[in-house]
Amino acid sequence: MSPTSISTTAARVVSIVLHPFLVLAALALLAAWRVDPASLSRTALGIGVAIAIVSVFIWQRRRGGHWQTVDASRRQERPLLYALALLVAGAYWIWMGGRASATSNGVLAAVAMLCVAGIANRWIKLSLHMASLSFAGVAAWPLWPAASIVALAALPLLGWARLRMARHTVPEVLGGTALGLVTGVVLLAAA
Fold first, then answer.
1. What is the pTM of this model?
2. Do 179 and 113 meet the contact criterion of CB atoms below 8 Å apart?
């Protein structure tokens, strides 16, 4: 295996392990575990169903030739992804009772973040990988500071992976990071 293919494989692994669905699912599970342990099984079930729905949708879009990659890398592929993510996040919020809680407030913040990214998509394809990880890094601070530090420390590695795979440009990586950080700070300030 050449160094280039090893590097690309490593970038793919990092992008999969730190995929927005996995990062946001981990954050929701962490919030449920630390703030409302009684909701942990309901949260896990809701996340499992949401991931299954989104996975089937992504598989269908990719298999049907509508998307070049599984992460909707082209800007024109993104509007439908944003719509589905908002629908799934809204359904999850209702599933969790539609009331203010650690997980539902986090879901609403993530929805707001997706809305901003969706609007910005007209001009720039912000990295949702970077936005999700930076948001989770900030939002996790009051729940478990060690997890927060790990998430924030992983940002440069994820940024490298997104650039290495040519999924984003430097402004898209930095813009996604900034969006996630600001959203996380707003969530904590509102708490």
1. 0.88
2. yes
